Structure formats: structure tokens, C-alpha cells
Amino acid sequence: MVQLQEALIETERLGEQFVAVKQQMVECDRMRNELREALTALRKAVVDGQRSVYVRRAGGVLIKADAARAREMMEADQRSVDAKLEGLRVEQKRLVALLADKGVTEGTVGPALLGAMLNLQDRPQSQAGRSSNTDPLAAVAASAAAAGKSSDLRAAAAAAAAAAAAAGQPSHDRRSAGYDPDEPD
Q1: Is residue 143 pLDDT above 70, yes or no?
Q2: What are phi and psi of 171, to 5 degrees?
């Protein structure tokens, strides 16, 4: 159980890192687009004969610079944003590979796995030596897997609850506690 918790914590940590990298990529892409738009506006201003322009720098500070110097600054900024974006893409690929190694891919959490995880319980040390054939969690997982052949999540949860009741484990099904999801609160 401790190994499962550690694996889930590690997977959650990798998922959070993935989301953070994705948010940074969105921010870098926004900055790259702003710089591209600014360079286009600068080219139009130069065509109109303007020799000096205002340029927004980091922190929102506006500075007045000649058009050639402003273009150099924006192109340098664009190169640094592109390099940062490429580094984030490499990091994203690394995180995706790590998550895939852990078995976290699209569609891997189905009704069977969900039903089995809903019924996870810590077992007392006296039951730890049982063989896997009499393990109630294995019965729950097998029952949920059998019901998981259909895509109906309710059927998988009901099968898992029935297996848990047959194994003598308390059910975590909210309907058995008087909860009906179809009934308004």
C-alpha cells in the first residue's frame, strides 16, 4: 500500500510539473506573438518615416529608442523567448515520457481501475500474509474488471460494491448510504 501511495504521489508530482511547464509555454507563446506584432508595427512605422519609437521593456517600462535599436532589442528578446520555449518543449517531452513510463496515458483510467481504487483499504498486519487468491482487493479488482468491459461506470461501481460486500468489506458506494445521484439535493 505504501508503494502504491508513493507511486501515486510521484505521478501527481510529475503531472503538476507538466501543467506548470504547459502554463509557461502558453506565456512564452503569448510573449512571442506580442513581439512578432510589435516588430510588424515597427516595420510599418519605419516605412512611415518615424526615426524614434517607444519600446516596452520588461516590467512594462517604456523607453524611447531609434527604430534600428528598437528592432535589435525586440529581435534579441524574440530569440531569448524562442530559446526558452524550446527548452520548455524539451522538458515537456521528458515529463510526458516519465508519465508514460508510469503507465499514465490517455484512457488508462477506466471503470475497472476506478472501481478498484474506490475500494482500496489498508489491511491489518494479520491479513498481510494471505495468498493473492483470497485477497478481497483482488476480488474487487477482478469483479470491476469484468464489469469494466462495458463503458458504463455505474455498472463497474456496482460490481465493485457487490464484490466488496461478498468479501466482507464495507462498501463505499454512496447509494448504499442513502445517496441517490438522480435525486435533487
Answers
A1: no
A2: -85, 145
What's the rounded Cα separation, in Å, for the pair 22 and 19? 5
Tell me the per-residue pLDDT of 74-119, one tens digit each, with 9 for 90 and over.
999 999 999 999 999 999 999 988 888 877 665 555 566 656 666 7
pLDDT in tens, 70-81: 999 999 999 999
What gap in Å lies between CA 119 and CA 171, rounded to an integer? 7
Write the DSSP assignment of the chain as a string of letters. Answer: -HHHHHHHHHHHHHHHHHHHHHHHHHHHHHHHHHHHHHHHHHHHHHHTT--EEEEE-GGG-EEEEEHHHHHHHHHHHHHHHHHHHHHHHHHHHHHHHHHHHTT--TT-S-HHHHHHHHT--PPPGGGTTS-GGG-HHHHHHHHHHHHTTSS-HHHHHHHHHHHHHHTTPPP--GGGGT--TTS--
